[in-house]
Every structure is written in structure tokens, then in C-alpha cells.
Amino acid sequence: MSDNLESVEVKLQEHLQQLYRQVIDADQYLDDLRQQGKAKFQGVFAEQTVFESKGNRFQPYLNEIAANFEKWQQDKENEQQLQLLVQQLQLMTETLARLKAIR
Questions:
Q1: In this structure, are residues 54 and 12 in contact, taking their beta carbons and an 8 Å threshold?
Q2: Which of 75, 50, 74 shows the shortest CA–CA distance to 64?
Q3: CB 76 within 8 A of CB 38
């Protein structure tokens, strides 16, 4: 494996670890809002996004990202898989940042 792909893999792994902690906090926040009768939406992301998962919490989407990361690890030459993974990571990161900003 080239050093470049190895570097990409390490960075993606680190990003996933950071997202995991943020998703736990965000899902707890959404649970708290639901207990207050708020956050009545059906999906965190619109249906026309880069995710196949659906849910009113972030965890299902993070699980999909992790599964796509594992797929990419099996075939690192698959640029489409890498592109999808990067798009999912970007959307998740931006959405979590927006949620944190309004809290």
C-alpha cells in the first residue's frame, strides 16, 4: 500500500473516532429534546442525501459511514467508495457542528 493511501486511511480512522464521540453527545441532546416534546422530526438528514440510512438519531448514519469505511479498506483502489465516504463524513461533520452551534 502506498504511503499516501496509508495516510488517508489513518486520517479517516481518526475522523471516525472524533465523530463517534460527537454522535454520542448529539444523540443524547436529541433524546433530551424529545423528552421535552421537541425534536419531532423523522430523519436527521433529508432523503436526498448521500446516506441510505434513515433515523431520528445520528448513530444509524455513523454506522453506515463505518461500514463504508470498512468496504473501502477492502478495496482502496475504489475511488467511488472513497468519494462517497468523504461526502458522508463531510455532511455528518457539518451537521454536528451546526447542531453544536445552536445548543
A1: no
A2: 50
A3: no
pLDDT confidence band for 1 (50 / 70 / 90): low
State mean pLDDT over 56-64: 96
Q: What is the pLDDT of residues 8-39, one digit of tens each?
A: 999 999 999 999 999 999 999 999 999 999 88
Nearest alpha-carbon partner for 20 in 86, 93, 74, 99: 93
Ordered by start, the domain boundaries in the chain are: 3-102
Cβ atoms 51, 10 nearer than 8 A: no
